[in-house]
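Structure first, sequence second, as always.
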């Protein structure tokens, strides 16, 4: 068993090196700057005036965050979503990849792709009933970000998305694999991030793993949520509990894949300000930096750092994840 583990670990590190080389940082970054642990990304709000007038989309907020963290321009990876509420919404989103490219062609994108919509069973997607919708999405993204990361059907082990895999894992796997095939036809440079949610919300994500040939990185979405436990014990639960960070380490190693954190943040479900969670996430990310392709802080409600709800967490984040000592 140890020989299998070592072989998987060697494969994972080789894949990580290849993957990391596909995520170029902006030229001219100071050699003295302290980089964030692994490659950092963010999801941010859309910048607009009170009357709805566009002020530069999410790119404007990302640039502001890079400046506040003293990071090189375009170094943050952008997380965005390609329609999550309906097939009609997905069709209407085909202009957004080009908008990103117009605002900053150097920005690396992670696109979260809904695997199905309410009213459409996963087995229908697996049978090809919505191929045309996914072809529009894949071609739209490929035209502007041909090397994007596609995060298809994330948090499948929960029960809050229509693509919940609990009890229909075979359908989820078949649907996921079909959509990956569509995206690969649009651009062979796409990479695919498979991302359950932390904890045991509804089902085991292991039963919904779609296969090493259609997954480039294995990840986890993890948030600080309200708990009766002390912050130290709550963190231990997230680290060592069912499908927590320790599980991610072991499962990624077993499959020879780099890890990623698809979303993380404070304040889920009105959880209080908790700088300890930020401390421990930074510690974990740094400890495993050589095995992590990227991590994404969800810098929008409910976890927005500038909301005024999390002053201590914000202070810790700005210190721990800045590009230079503060």
């Amino acid at each position: 068993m140890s020989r299998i583990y070592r072989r998987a670990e060697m494969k994972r590190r080789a894949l990580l090196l290849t993957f990391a080389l596909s995520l170029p940082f902006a030229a001219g970054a100071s050699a003295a700057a302290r980089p964030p642990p692994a490659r950092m990304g963010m999801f941010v709000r859309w910048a607009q005036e009170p009357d709805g007038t566009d002020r530069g989309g999410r790119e404007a907020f990302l640039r502001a965050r890079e400046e506040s963290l003293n990071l090189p321009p375009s170094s943050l990876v952008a997380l965005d979503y390609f329609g999550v509420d309906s097939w009609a919404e997905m069709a209407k989103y085909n202009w957004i990849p080009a908008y990103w490219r117009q605002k900053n062609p150097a920005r690396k994108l992670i696109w979260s792709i809904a695997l199905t919509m309410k009213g459409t069973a996963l087995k229908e997607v697996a049978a090809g009933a919505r191929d045309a919708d996914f072809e529009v999405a894949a071609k739209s993204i490929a035209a502007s970000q041909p090397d994007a990361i596609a995060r298809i059907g994330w948090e499948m082990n929960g029960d809050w998305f229509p693509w919940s895999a609990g009890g229909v894992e075979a359908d989820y796997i078949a649907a996921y694999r079909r959509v990956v095939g569509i995206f690969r036809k649009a651009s062979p440079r796409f990479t695919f991030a498979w991302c359950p949610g932390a904890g045991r919300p509804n089902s085991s994500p292991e039963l919904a793993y779609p296969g090493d040939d259609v997954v480039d990185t294995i990840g986890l979405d993890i948030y600080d949520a309200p708990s009766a436990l002390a912050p130290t014990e709550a963190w231990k639960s997230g680290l060592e509990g069912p499908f927590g960070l320790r599980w991610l380490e072991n499962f990624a190693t077993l499959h020879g894949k780099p890890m990623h954190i698809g979303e993380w943040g404070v304040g889920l479900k009105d959880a209080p300000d908790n700088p300890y969670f930020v401390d421990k996430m930074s510690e974990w990310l740094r400890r495993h930096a050589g095995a992590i392709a990227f991590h994404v802080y969800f810098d929008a409600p409910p976890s927005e750092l500038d909301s005024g709800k999390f002053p201590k967490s914000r202070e810790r984040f700005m210190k721990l994840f800045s590009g230079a000592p503060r």
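Margin note: The domain at 2-25+35-320 is CATH 3.20.20.80 (TIM Barrel).
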